[in-house]
Specification:
There is one protein chain. By secondary structure, the chain is α/β, with parallel strands linked by helices. It has three domains: 125 residues, N-utilizing Substance Protein B Homolog, Chain A; 55 residues, 2-Layer Sandwich (Alpha-Beta Plaits); 196 residues, Rossmann fold, CATH 3.40.50. Strand 6, helix 15 and strand 7 form a beta-alpha-beta unit. The model has no long low-confidence stretch (mean pLDDT 94).
């Protein structure tokens, strides 16, 4: 089998990085790339985006003036990220990077990369002394982490630069954790059971190589995200709303746990289609509704819900290792915008909760403005709401803030009950 040259992967990765700099996602940019080069290109692009603050710092030291050509700048960022990790392959990397460069900039590319190799030690020392370059997060982001987590912000930032874990969720209607672990072992896949439904793979795999995925016996879902269905605790016969439901992971998990009448609400029709695909693979059913959670008058049938899950739009600051472009596309004002949207959704959906019913609010954020501060403000506005324990650090813990770790991403949960 002939593998594509490294220059092809570098070129495709540079397209993705240039696209992100222009405001697009790397997956969107790479969608049309040849499948033979896509895995290597995506790995290079994501590594570069995780390191963007560092690469941008180094490139600034190596260029006499800013490079206006975005594709060449992106290619240099990809090459620098690779060179720092693979100094043993420097000769090949420089050669392939020059090959991938537009002919107008081949000399510049060669000079920049060779200067980096000559000045490597002093350049990396300077990068380590710069906060953005060292922690690979924007300055405003680091400030938010410092303010919220003065003792652990460095660990949170460092974890955000790692490769994310791959966790599976067993479909309890079709398989058991113990049996599936044995099946993985027989297939030579190293894994460990985290609880009765979550299995952590030692190394990430494409879904097509995961036994039982196509047949609906297992899904890919972060362990932190799996806490949603547990905390919602829906029982057979209940009427349940999953607001902001796409792509359907939490919807499916709720249905795997109990025979409920579930309504999956999603604003974006294209994302709503993914819910149907996931449910079909798993052999599950939910009533799908395309609509705005902030405007229930447009889609609600007037019957209240026993349980509502609000998986609110947020900064996604807890999952940046999966989506490293987020760090560089987000702006401080975006967080305030998410806070307003979250409050509007909570206020609009609260009247839909039946007396004695519960609403679970969750985000994949680590910023308190979107989490604890949001819930405190909601409770102050709604005297018929009370917070229930989440079991986070004890039976009376009123919220659960998961920070990114080796076994899960960053998530926040707060459980609210409507007083009868």
């Amino acid at each position: 089998m002939n593998h594509p040259p490294l220059s092809a992967a570098l070129s495709a990765a540079a397209q993705a990085v240039a696209g992100v700099i222009a405001g697009r996602t790397p997956e969107t940019v790479l969608a049309g790339i040849d499948t033979a080069v896509r895995p290597a290109a995506l790995d290079l692009a994501f590594t570069t985006l995780r390191d963007f603050g560092r690469g941008d710092f180094l490139l600034g030291k190596l260029l006499e003036k800013p490079l206006q050509d975005n594709p060449t700048r992106a290619l240099l960022l990809v090459a620098l990220a690779r060179l720092e990790r693979r100094p043993d392959a420097a000769h090949t990397l420089v050669d392939q990077a020059v090959t991938a460069t537009d002919k107008r900039f081949k000399g510049l590319t060669n000079a920049v990369l060779r200067n980096f190799l000559r000045q490597r030690d002093s350049l990396l020392a300077a990068a380590d002394a710069d906060a953005v370059a060292h922690w690979r997060h924007p300055h405003w982001w680091l400030e938010k982490l410092r303010d919220a987590y003065p003792d652990t912000w460095q660990a949170i930032a460092a974890e955000g630069n790692t490769h994310p874990p791959l966790c599976l969720r067993i479909n309890r209607r079709r398989a058991s954790s113990a049996d599936f672990c044995r099946e993985l072992a027989a297939a030579g896949i190293v894994a460990q059971a985290l609880d009765d439904t979550a299995i952590l793979l030692d190394k990430p795999l494409p879904v097509e190589r995961i036994p039982g995925f196509r047949e609906g016996r297992v899904s890919v879902q972060d362990w932190g995200a799996q806490r949603a269905a547990d905390l919602l605790d829906a029982a057979d016969g209940m009427r349940v709303l999953d607001a902001c439901a796409a792509p359907g992971g939490k919807t499916a998990h709720i249905l795997e746990r109990a025979a409920v009448r579930l309504f999956a609400l999603e604003l974006d029709p294209e994302r709503a289609a993914r819910i149907a695909q996931n449910l079909q693979r798993l052999g599950l059913f939910a009533t799908q509704v395309v609509g705005d959670a902030r405007q229930p008058a447009d889609w609600w049938d007037g019957q209240r819900f026993d349980r509502i899950l609000v998986d609110a739009p947020c900064s996604a600051s807890g999952v940046v290792r999966r989506h490293p472009d987020i760090k560089w596309l987000r702006r401080p004002a975006d967080v305030a915008g998410f806070v307003r949207t979250q409050a509007a959704i909570l206020d609009a959906l609260w009247p839909l909760v039946a007396p004695g019913g519960r609403m679970l609010y969750c985000t994949c954020s680590v910023f308190p403005q979107e989490n604890g501060e949001q819930v405190c403000a909601f409770v102050a506005r709604h005297p018929d709401s009370r917070r229930l324990p989440t079991g986070a650090t004890g039976e009376s813990a009123p919220e659960l803030q998961l920070l990114p770790a080796a076994t899960h991403d960053g998530f926040y949960y707060a459980l609210l009950e409507k007083t009868p």
